[in-house]
Amino acid sequence: MTKTELFLKLANPDEFGISRWVEVTEFVGEYASLKFGNGASWARKESQLAKKYKIQFDKSITAGNSIDAIKLNGYSENSDSQYIKAEIKKEIKSRRCVILDTSNPEVDHKNGMKNESRVMQNENQQLSDFQPLSKAANDAKRQHCKECKQSGVRYDAKRLGYPISYYAGGAIHHGEENACVGCYWYDPIEFRKHLTEKI
After folding, report:
1. For residues 23 and 8, what is the distance between their CA atoms, to the nearest angstrom?
2. One domain for residues 65 and 147
3. What are 141-190's pLDDT values in tens digits?
4. What are the b/e assignments for 75-102, b being 16+ CB within 10 Å?
5. How many folded domains does the chain comprise?
6. Does the pLDDT at position 126 exceed 80?
7. What is the pLDDT of residues 98-117, one digit of tens each?
8. What integer pLDDT is reported at residue 15 of this predicted model?
9. Phi and psi dihedrals of 41, rounded to 5?
10. Residue 80: left if φ>0, alpha if ψ -120 to 50, beta else—which one?
11. What does the DSSP assignment read for 20-78?
12. Do 38 and 123 share a structural domain?
């Protein structure tokens, strides 16, 4: 197990890439190899950990500015490139945003909960697991998905003026893998296909 993998096991970040503060005093026993030498070694800005996560340090003023604790504060801006097949990313980025019809989209995981192990593993990803969204649309989706996960209530498309709330499932979800299916944000194109049959 690499030091990065070892730290992730200890820090246990959530689906947003956010972890608790991990004190350096916890680097004992199984985690003893995580003790810092000169600088942050395995957590420096060019490290594998920093390529995926935003890293925050808590430094001691009284102990020569040494690091007391470390926290993961979300995914870094370019982390998607490591977890989406290159050919899928290239194809999605060549398309137009499915909501705003603008070019140069971001690659969006349709499942906003990102709780499907198959999709999160490169070798098993399919083109249909992703969609092109503009930065504005992707930012909006990210916010609505965050609220959905926190509340257990799915986004209601009637708020956007649509005549239906979802094309499958109801308002309440329990965090299951398929909880996103039927939500507007999961697949706006598929959602619009179901409008006439639901009216």
Report:
1. 13
2. no
3. 999 999 998 899 999 999 999 999 999 999 999 888 889 999 999 999 99
4. bbeeebeebbbeebbeebeeeebbbeee
5. 2
6. yes
7. 999 999 999 999 999 887 87
8. 74
9. 35, -100
10. alpha
11. --EEGGG--GGGGGG--SSTTGGGSTTSHHHHHEEEEEEE-TTTTT-EEEEEEEEE-TT
12. no
Cα torsion through 110, 115, 120, 121, rounded to 10:
-140
28 and 86 in one domain? no
Paired strand residues for 109:
130
CB 107 within 8 Å of CB 84:
yes
Which amino acid, one-letter code, is at 76? S
d(CA 55, CA 73): 6
Verify that 68 and 157 share a domain, yes or no. Answer: no
Q: How many angstroms separate the CA atoms of 132 and 99, rounded?
A: 9
Q: Which of 52, 75, 98 is the last residue of a domain?
A: 75
Cα(102)–Cα(152) distance, integer angstroms: 31
Query: Is residue 173 within 8 Å of residue 115, measured between CB atoms?
Result: no
Q: Is 132 helix (H, G, I), strand (E, B) or coil?
A: strand
Alpha-carbon distance 164 to 177, whole Å? Answer: 22
Query: Which range marks the domain in which residue 69 is found?
Result: 3-75
Q: Tokens in use for 125? A: 């990803």
Indicate if 67 and 122 belong to the same structural domain.
no
Residue type, 119: V
Backbone dihedral region for residue 125 (phi beyond 0: left; psi -120 to 50: alpha; all else: beta): beta
CA dist 190 and 110 (Å) reads 11
Are 101 and 193 part of one and the same domain? yes
